[in-house]
Design goal:
Elements: E1 3-7, H1 11-22, E2 26-30, H2 34-41, H3 52-61, E3 65-68, H4 71-74, E4 80-83, H5 98-110, E5 115-119, H6 127-138, E6 145-149, H7 159-164, E7 169-173, H8 176-186, E8 193-196, H9 198-229, H10 233-241, H11 262-275, H12 281-304, E9 313-317, H13 332-342, E10 346-350, H14 355-361, E11 366-367, H15 371-375, E12 380-383, H16 388-391, H17 395-401, E13 406-409, H18 416-421, E14 425-427
Parallel strand pairs: 1-2, 1-4, 2-3, 4-5, 5-6, 7-8, 9-10, 9-12, 10-11, 12-13, 13-14
Antiparallel strand pairs: 6-7
């Protein structure tokens, strides 16, 4: 059993803390947000993630995980300290490292014994060296420590499974002994472990996310061509995916990517390239293609409704950037809603879990607690998030509730032939 501190109880930090506790370690999860910590002590989760509520409560009951706002308390007797704080995008596309700096400074001031400091947050290349300098400068007296990069590869909606059954664990450090200690911590996961230097580990994280984002933008650009030539992008993606060199994952045409990782990671990687005098043409195109999807979706609905959205009521099926999460960060629904409203439309929405997060972000959007009530009287519906419950809707009932039977399927969850046979004016992406 190891003694672990995790700084930050957001998506990455809370999952990391709970999973390490479930592996039998003693974990203290720290956050400077007093309300968040108080709620966790009451069993109230700050995020929606399938299985997380049960996992946290089970390990709290077993005494393997505790929550605090005190660095002195959190670092008492620990061997490992994970930094898992937010690194949002700055206005110029760079990663904002103020929370990483604050965590490193507080750890330095409160550590009382040698420590392995692990960057779990997604941070620019070179941050590991920068964190080491911060700790050295902030320590009241010199205490041995090592900095290790161990980037996370968790997908929201399946984060627990991704942690417990990872494709690989990437560990980077200039201190081989520290890297081996972190590797030992991950051995129970029985996954391949890649040990490299600090900067290479940091780059692996960015490169992985940027490549996956590129696959999504590629298939979306291909979807436009499929529509022009009469091909079905879903069948194209399936045919491509059987090639092991390509793979099936992340070849789903639709409204593109959003969330907390892909947008800021692609942007940050492009920013780093520009800083070094390079022209990141592919990365810039990946972002351009992705964000164009949102405007094109609104234009498509406008055409389906006869060329004008003024005075029309549009219903959104889903708000979160992907299913099985309540995360609204860079969700396509935000840009789509604003574009619709700017064109004179009224916007309604329903999402199974994300509406409490979406309300303050989209105050002009009318939220409904029941999907059929939301659909009643709409001039068109747009599928924004591919929640399973939308795949099981009573489409005959939906058709009867709509003012006009218009459906724009931004996630390709329905079969075009069936929708047209039912009398819908239907459009999918690349089909």
């Amino acid at each position: 059993m190891k003694q672990i501190c995790v700084v930050g109880v957001g998506y990455v930090g809370l999952v990391t803390a709970a999973c390490f506790a479930d592996l039998g370690n003693r974990v203290t999860a720290l956050d400077v947000n007093e309300e968040r910590v108080a709620n966790l002590k009451k069993g109230i989760m700050p995020i929606y993630e399938p299985g997380l509520d049960e996992l946290v409560k089970r390990n709290v009951k077993a005494g393997r995980i505790t929550f605090t706002t005190s660095y002195a308390e959190a670092l008492k007797g620990v061997e490992y300290a994970f930094i898992a704080v937010g690194t949002p995008s700055g206005s110029d596309g760079s990663a904002d490292l103020q929370y990483v700096a604050a965590a490193a400074t507080s750890i330095a001031k409160n550590m009382t014994a040698p420590l392995v400091l692990i960057n779990k947050s997604t941070v620019p290349i070179g941050t590991g060296d920068w964190v080491a300098d911060i700790v050295k400068g902030a320590q009241p007296k010199p205490i041995d420590f090592a900095v290790v990069s161990c980037p996370e590869f968790l997908r929201e909606g399946s984060a627990i499974g991704d942690f417990m059954s990872p494709h690989r664990t990437v560990i980077g450090s200039l201190d081989r002994d520290a890297a081996n200690k972190v590797a030992q911590l991950h051995l129970p996961l029985r996954a391949p472990i890649v040990i490299t230097d600090l900067r290479t580990a940091e780059m692996i994280k960015y490169a992985s996310n940027a490549f996956l984002a590129t696959k999504i933008s590629f298939i979306n650009e291909l979807a436009d061509l499929c529509e022009r030539v009469g091909a079905d992008v879903k069948e194209v993606a399936a045919g491509m995916g059987y090639d092991a060199r390509i793979g099936r994952h992340f070849l789903d045409a639709g409204l593109g990517w959003g969330g907390s990782c892909f947008p800021k990671d692609v942007e940050a990687l492009a920013f780093m390239a520009k800083e070094k005098g390079l022209n990141p043409k592919i990365l810039n195109s990946v972002m351009d293609v992705n964000y164009d999807r949102r405007k094109e979706a609104v234009k498509s609905v406008e055409v389906m409704l006869g060329g004008s959205l003024k005075g029309k009521t549009i219903g959104l099926l889903g708000l979160a950037f992907k299913p099985n999460t309540d995360d609204m960060r860079d969700a396509p629904a935000i840009d789509i809603s604003e574009e619709l409203i700017g064109s004179g439309a009224k916007v309604r929405a329903y999402d199974p879990v994300a509406m409490h997060v979406a309300r303050p972000i989209l105050p002009a959007v009318e939220m409904f607690e029941e999907v059929y009530k939301m659909a009643e009287g709409c001039d068109a519906l747009m599928v924004i998030t591919e929640w399973n419950e939308f795949k099981q809707l009573d489409l005959d009932k939906v058709k009867g509730l709509l003012r006009s039977p218009v459906v724009y399927d931004g996630r390709n969850i329905y079969e075009p032939g069936r929708m047209k046979d039912m009398g819908f004016t239907y459009r999918a992406v690349g089909r």
